[in-house]
Amino acid sequence: MLRFVAPMRILGINPYVLVSAARARAIKPGWRKPLPVLVRLNGQPKKKPWRINMMPIGNGSFYLYLHGDVRRASQTAVGDSVRVEIEFDAAYRGGPMQRMPSWFRVPLSNGTRAMNAWKALIPSRKKEILRYLWNLKSVEARARNVARALRVLSSNKSRFMGRSWE
């Protein structure tokens, strides 16, 4: 288990803690792709750590993005110094954890271009999209976000899930 204190920063709309190349090597030497880790922030959660994929920067360092649930549980915000406990998640298995909801699968299968783009996505991106879609509450939000997903998967430049897609 690696422990350190670091400031929480923000990149675009995404809060993160920078994990240096030296710290990343201590977690898993030689790893260059998204790194699955188990994380506690300020000692939270007490029982079962968060499962998060750290994202490589390209110089050996990684971004540890911190979603809202992590920040709320640890009572932290951008600009705070946070105590990070992190270790490699040896039990991680790639690919989406959630099944594809029918209200996304049906429209996706109607667009050949969008379906081909979906099949070409890396597993962690599929997982991220499905997690996002499953957390939508209203029918209106689902319809709006399915339309956005199909638009970006059909090679139209647009914004979806806080990033620009091309």
Distance separating the two termini: 38 Å
Number of strands: 8
Which value, in Å, is the CA radius of gyration? Answer: 17 Å
Q: Can you list the strand order of the major beta sheet?
A: 1-2-5-4-3-6
**Structure class:** alpha+beta
Order of helices and strands: EEHEEEHEHHHHEE
Number of domains: 2
CATH superfamily of the largest domain: AF2212/PG0164-like
For the record, the CATH architecture of the largest domain stands as Beta Barrel
- The stretches of 5 or more residues where confidence is low (pLDDT under 50) are none
Task: Determine the fraction of residues in helical runs and give it as a percent range.
Answer: 25-40%
Main sheet, how many strands, which sense, barrel? Answer: 6 strands, antiparallel, barrel
Tell me what the structure shows.
The chain folds into 2 domains: 87 residues, Elongation Factor Tu (Ef-tu), domain 3 (Beta Barrel), CATH 2.40.30.100; 64 residues, no CATH class. The protein has a 6-stranded antiparallel β-barrel. A two-stranded antiparallel sheet has the order 7-8. Helix 3 runs parallel beside helix 6 and helix 4 crosses helix 6. The protein has 166 residues and is an alpha+beta fold. The mean pLDDT is 89.
In short:
The protein has 166 residues and is an alpha+beta fold.
Helices and strands, with pairings:
Layout: E1 2-11, E2 14-19, H1 21-27, E3 35-41, E4 50-56, E5 62-65, H2 68-74, E6 81-88, H3 102-109, H4 112-120, H5 123-134, H6 139-153, E7 158-160, E8 163-165
Antiparallel strand pairs: 1-2, 1-6, 2-5, 3-4, 3-6, 4-5, 7-8
